[in-house]
Amino acid sequence: MNESGAAPTDRLLDLFHGVRLTPTQRRIAHCLVQQAGAAAYLSAAEVAELAGVSQPSVTRFAMALGHDGYPALRRRLRELTATGAADPAEAGNALQRAVHAEMGNLDRLAGQLADAGRIAEVGKLLAASRPLPVLGLRAAAPLAAYFAYFAAKVHPDVRVLDDGGSLLADRLEQAAAAGATALLAFVLPRYPRETLDALREARDAGLTVVAITDSPVSPATDHAEVVLPAAVGTDLVFDLHTAPMTLAMVVLQAICDATPAETQSRLEAFESSAARRQLFLG
After folding, report:
1. Edge to edge, what strands does the sheet with 208-213 contain?
2. Is residue 103 assigned to a domain?
3. Same structural domain for residues 156 and 61?
4. Could you tell me how far CA 224 lies from the centroid of its own chain?
5. 14, 174, 215, 261: which one has the fewest Cβ atoms less than 10 Å from its Cβ?
6. Which of 83, 109, 141 is the last residue of a domain?
7. What pLDDT is attached to residue 4?
8. How many domains does the chain have?
9. 24-38, 128-142, 176-190: which range is least confident on average?
């Protein structure tokens, strides 16, 4: 998609692409993405307040992006977020627009998957982790459970971590002691503090963290070795997780592709067991 046809959020993300940002600068970038519609009209002080950083940090952020100060960055933001011709996704009623927005999220995800090699490497990394802990708290818990339900059919030991509290750290340590080498984490807005704490604890335990999150500048990027972004829909009362769910199943496909013989054997064993117990009608 060219710049003129891209959504404002995508054009902002392109602005940060390839730039090495500090954790503080990533907070500012994430704030601007979250405020994409209004970002170009915020003062440096307003951005600082929204991001929870100092005003000089906003100035340094602008300079890191190649501008001589925040006013120059704000002019660039106005260029990037200016709207041209009417977007077909803006047509229809509110419910239709929400669905069109999800279609756009899936289109962007499809573009990211052009680098099939990266996903293949993630699949190998997760397939080799025995056990494989899968983290998802609060709104991300259903995604973790959905992924784990199917992953358990092709992986010998999948452990869902969907409860917070002090026991979560215990379960991460237990997984590492049992031989786990990687953690798959679903990190979605509003980014529970416990989730980010768990990512830090996982890394301290020696696990390689793979995070499926909503943005390449989300808080998860500070704590994960591998970040796989998939945007969430924000046009309804509660977020839509269509793209993250799709990405989760793409990652599972990569795990299957990494161990084809084992995958086939386990699937055949499950089908045989299911037929013997008459689990399904069809």
Report:
1. 158-161, 132-136, 182-187, 208-213, 226-229
2. yes
3. no
4. 11
5. 261
6. 83
7. 47
8. 2
9. 24-38
* Closest C-alpha to 162, from 146, 180, 181: 146
2: left (phi over 0), alpha (psi -120 to 50) or beta: beta
Instruction: Please give the residue range of the domain that contains residue 108.
Output: 99-276
Q: What pTM value is reported for the model?
A: 0.83
Q: Predicted confidence band at 2 (pLDDT cuts at 50, 70, 90)?
A: very low
Are 110 and 134 in the same domain? yes
Q: What is the pLDDT of residues 126-149, one digit of tens each?
A: 999 999 999 999 999 999 999 999
What CA–CA distances, in Å, run from 194 to 101, 110, 207? Answer: 29, 30, 17
Measured in residues, the chain has a length of: 282
Tell me: do 108 and 74 sit in the same domain. Answer: no
Over residues 255-265, the mean pLDDT reads 97
Q: Which helix (H) or strand (E) holds 268?
A: helix 260-277
Q: Comparing C-alpha atoms, which of 32, 41, 35 is closest to residue 78? A: 41
* Confidence class for position 1, pLDDT limits 50, 70, 90: very low
Which amino acid does the sequence have at 187? V
Residue 140 · residue 187 · CB < 8 Å = yes
Whole-number Å distance between alpha carbons of 4 and 1: 8
